[in-house]
Amino acid sequence: MSAVAVRHAAVAYAGRTVLRDVTLDVGDGQVVAVLGANGSGKSTLIRTILGLVPLAGGEIDLFGTPQRRFREWARIGYVPQRMGAGGGVPATVGEVVASGRLARRGIFRPARAADREAVRAALEDVGLLDRIGDPVATLSGGQQQRTLIARALAGRPDLLVLDEPTAGVDAASQEAFAAALARFGERGGTILLVAHELGPLEPLIDKAVVVHDGRIAYEGAVPEPAGHHAGPGHDHVHPHAEPERSRICVAPTDRMPANP
Ligand SMILES: Nc1ncnc2c1ncn2[C@@H]1O[C@H](COP(=O)(O)OP(=O)(O)OP(=O)(O)O)[C@@H](O)[C@H]1O
Q1: Ligand 1 centre from 196 Cα, in Å?
Q2: Distance, CA of 10 to chain centre
Q3: Which of 5-14, 55-64, 106-115, 227-236 has the lowest mean pLDDT?
Q4: Ligand 1 residue neighbourhood (C-beta within 6 Å)
Q5: Using the 8-state DSSP alphabet, how is residue 204 labeled?
Q6: Average pLDDT over residues 166-171
Q7: Which of 68, 85, 138, 141 is the least crowded, having the fewest Cβ atoms under 10 Å away?
Q8: CATH for 1-218, options being 3.40.630.30, 3.40.50.300, 3.40.50.970, 3.40.1550.10
Q9: Where is this region: Disordered (predicted)?
Q10: Is 93 within 8 Å of 138 (Cβ atoms)?
Q11: Ligand 1 mean position, distance from CA 13 (Å)
């Protein structure tokens, strides 16, 4: 069974089409990376899968159920792009991670030993158990990102969806991420992540999908990096001109047709 099956999806913002004819399958237990240049539609694709953006056409199934009838959202953990875990809120690392249990336990039932254990296990997974009582604001950016991954892991999801989890994150945190995701995968978890650069995540990836201008331009093994743009340290924050963009996208459509 597929954790996620997208068929001929189209998405528009205020009448402007940003995704067209997107077909994508994330098999149970697979690790799938969505790659592509800034503005190509990667975040829109995963936000549509999560039901945060409406479909203008096509269909999405989640764990075999049409998205509009899907209710088991606790099976999905989501780490949005660049969301600060601190944000001026004086919460501790443990409290932020415990909030990832709410969908599992219901807001009005006090935390049980199982909830506390899930929080500790998730923090252990990302290497931050020793910071459980510290205010999130005292953590580095990379550690805050790891806290958000731990929050998603604490809900014991079957599918983890991550939008650029390692963007702008220090090397130690990237390694800690990769290790946590590898363990999640070993436990049978499914991962769908958006990335500009895979870095230490690359060995985990079963399938890469390249989005270019709202379409799937490539699907297959992780493509070779194109020039310095795909190398480490290149922070993809600026929009690229069209010719350069197609180089970054590494869309070897001559090797494998997308969605044949
Ligand atoms: N809420 C929104 N309203 C209107 N347009 C949007 C909205 N979100 C994204 N867009 C537009 O849709 C297109 C795809 O954006 P999206 O964020 O999905 O791309 P992306 O590949 O994730 O880019 P990035 O790597 O910069 O996050 C872009 O042209 C963007 O400007």
Answers
A1: 14
A2: 20
A3: 227-236
A4: 13, 18, 36, 38-44
A5: G
A6: 80
A7: 68
A8: 3.40.50.300
A9: 223-243
A10: no
A11: 9
Give the contacts of 228 (CB within 8 A, at least 6 positions apart): 234
Distance 157 CA to ligand 1 centre (A): 26
Residues 6+ apart with CB under 8 A from 105: 111, 112, 115
Strands 76-79 and 215-220: unpaired
Q: What is the largest CA-CA distance in the chain?
A: 56
Looking at the predicted structure, is the pLDDT value of residue 118 above 60? yes
Q: Ligand 1 mean position to 239 CA, how many Å?
A: 12
Which residue type does 42 have?
K
Among 16, 19, 34, 42, the mutation site with the greatest number of ligand 1 atoms within 8 A of its Cβ is 42
Domain ranges for the chain, please list them: 1-218
Residue 104: how many CB atoms within 10 A of its CB? Answer: 15
Out of 42, 44, 81, mutate this one to test ligand 1's pocket (max ligand atoms within 8 Å of CB): namely 44
What CA–CA distances, in Å, run from 130 to 142, 209, 229? 15, 37, 36
Q: Are 126 and 177 in contact (CB under 8 A)?
A: yes
Residue nearest to atom 10 of ligand 1 (CA): 13
Query: 44 CA distance to ligand 1 centroid (A)?
Result: 6
End-to-end Cα distance, the chain: 20
Q: Name the residue with the closest Cα to ligand 1, atom 8.
A: 44
Confidence band of 233 (pLDDT split at 50, 70, 90): very low
Contact 36, 249 (CB under 8 A): yes
